[in-house]
Amino acid sequence: MRNFRAALIGFIAVALFSAGASAQESRLGTISRLDEANGIIGIAEAQTGTTGSGAGTAAQAFKVQDGLAFNAFKEGDRVSYTAEDIQGVKAVTKLQKQ
What we know:
The protein is α+β, with helices and mostly antiparallel strands. The chain has one domain: CATH 2.40.50. It is built from one helix and five strands; from the N terminus they run H-E-E-E-E-E. The protein has one helix spanning about 1-25, and strands spanning about 25-35, 40-45, 60-65, 80-85, 90-95. Strands 1-2-3-5-4 form a five-stranded mixed barrel. Strand 1 and strand 2 form a beta hairpin. The longest helix has 22 residues, at about 1-25.
């Protein structure tokens, strides 16, 4: 029983750590929409996977975390970004031109 508990705790710890690590992963995309009045940015994530696949990814809307400047970006800019779920809302926490 003791070994089972130790294994279960270890499994849960690994699962939580890997979920947290992927939430902070930097991604690549293209800005498709800037809505400064509402604090929203649309980003179409860069396609990964097989070459020749014509299916593009739809843009996702993110709230912009305080401190990120809209005037430094325009629609069509290629960016690397980090997004996380903050109280149930997808938010960009880091945004950088490529």
